[in-house]
Amino acid sequence: MTVRAVQVIADADVIAYHSARHGRSIARSIAAEHLRADHIEEALVYPVTTEGTDHPGGYRGALEEFYTDAAARLAAHLDAGRTVAVLAEGDPLFYGSYMHMHKRLADRYPTEVVPGVTSVSAAAARLGTPLAEAEEVLTILPGTLPEEELTARLAGTDAAVVMKLGRTFPTVRRAMERSGRLADAHYVERATMSGERTGRLADTDPESVPYFSVAVLPSRLSDAVRSGGADGGERDRATGTGTGTGTGTGEVVVVGTGPAGPLWLTPETRGALAAADELVGYTTYLDRVPVRHGQRRHGSDNRVESERAEFALELARRGARVAVVSGGDPGVFAMATAVLEVAAQDTYRDVPVRVLPGVTAANAAAARAGAPLGHDYAALSLSDRLKPWEVIERRLHAAAAADLALALYNPGSRSRGWQVGKARELLLEHRAPDTPVVLARDVGGPEESVRTVRLADLDPAEVDMRTILLIGSSQTRTTRRADDTEWVWTPRHYPDAPST
């Protein structure tokens, strides 16, 4: 308890506290030595906790009625001129019962909220480990969330505390395991109180877990330093040789950053990037990933995919957790294929490799424009660096003849600008001149530009490597909205099929 809390209790006429129907109150037991015989005690006894109820409003209705009645009881004391102290374990406004009184009374009576030590802080103190360091993000989660939601949030954060265990413990444990965080998770029960217990979450018996317990994922940085991880190995940056930086079994995770920055990352990708010892990738894509203390970053040119993949697999073979960073989705004209191709060699067959999906440029651009890829479509790269132009030309003819909408990646650069003009000529053999073409450049970035032109008016000079082209089918339409925005969309039905 804080010194101020003791003073408030000493000055109060009425001491109020919540309890279940058994009448025992943790908040009262904490403050018991400071209570006087002349204190008026108001025990606010919940009508239900986790059991069912026959209240016409159900569980929520029963609690709402209880909070209203409890607030009225305290208001009667306040109207009589008495000072009321409401006891709350932890902090009053952090998942606390007091907040329901506060919302009903604070606008009518002078109110002071005295902050307290939360179970989050108490658990960290008992474990003797920092919760978060530097730019790490700490996430507080109720264990009552659905398992999928818990899994996503645990995968996407640096450190976490999951509250309200008890009956939710099996769900929380599964979420920890599915997110890859179970090995790092700690269990704390009744921190700083009698009956305190700590240990590894994975070793905790689900039948023994009470409501007043928490699961803790502490700072990754602290764990890495204690285990000799992130800063634990030496390596020659020029050759990639050395002792390695891994903390155990290495792996390669190929991740996509989406078309731009952090807003486009999935929770799973965030988690993989945070957990990595080494980041490998094209420098432009690496720059999108926040710098973390202890991680090593290996940037390289965009034209050395195989070398980059082999470098990453070699680091993993020596025990490092490696994230290969790709733009968009790693499996769409990106690094996943390069990594898997090298990983198929006998040298790296035992190195675990995972590929995590990302938001690809075609989907990001389509969403900005409306729904131009709302029906069947094909995705092609116009770059002839890795395949002959003759192959590209045949595929363009086939896709255009099939009346597919098209997403054209890598349309042009400073060293090759003729492909866009050739593609336009070829497509005009199959499409009307007024077919909508979306030019989307730097989607999600500071220089984002999305506009629509006619196929006949497509100017190759306005296209570069940061642009993706979305070519409509014969059915693609444009619509001018009341706010003067233009939507491009391809109907999901064809003329000879019934409209839905």
* Proportion of strand residues: 15-25%
Query: Number of helix segments?
Result: 15
Low-confidence stretches: 225-247
Main sheet: strand order: 4-5-8-6-7
Mean pLDDT metric:
89
Distance between the termini: 64 Å
Our Rg estimate from Cα atoms comes to 30 Å
Shape: elongated
* Helical fraction: 25-40%
Structural class label: alpha/beta
Please provide the count of β strands.
21
Largest sheet, described in full?
Answer: 5 strands, mixed
Core attributes:
500 residues; 5-stranded mixed beta sheet; elongated; alpha/beta; 5-stranded parallel beta sheet; 15 helices; 20% strand; 21 strands
Kindly describe this structure:
This protein has 15 helices and 21 strands. Helices cover 30% and strands 20% of the residues. α6 (147-155) packs across α7. The N and C termini lie far apart (64 Å). β10 (278-282), α10 and β11 form a beta-alpha-beta unit. Mean pLDDT is 89; it is low at 225-247. The protein has 500 residues and is an alpha/beta fold.
Gist?
The protein is α/β, with parallel strands linked by helices and 500 residues long.
Question: How are the secondary structure elements laid out?
Answer:
Layout: H1 3-11, E1 14-19, H2 26-31, E2 40-45, H3 58-79, E3 84-86, H4 98-105, H5 119-127, E4 138-142, H6 147-155, E5 159-163, H7 169-178, E6 186-189, E7 197-200, E8 213-217, H8 220-226, E9 251-256, H9 267-275, E10 278-282, H10 283-286, E11 296-300, H11 305-317, E12 321-326, H12 335-343, E13 353-355, H13 361-369, E14 370-371, E15 377-381, H14 389-401, E16 405-409, H15 418-428, E17 436-441, E18 449-454, E19 467-471, E20 477-480, E21 486-489
Parallel strand pairs: 1-2, 1-3, 4-5, 9-12, 9-13, 10-11, 10-12, 14-21, 15-16
Antiparallel strand pairs: 5-8, 6-7, 6-8, 16-19, 17-18, 17-19, 20-21
Helix pairs in contact: 3-4, 6-7, 6-9, 11-12
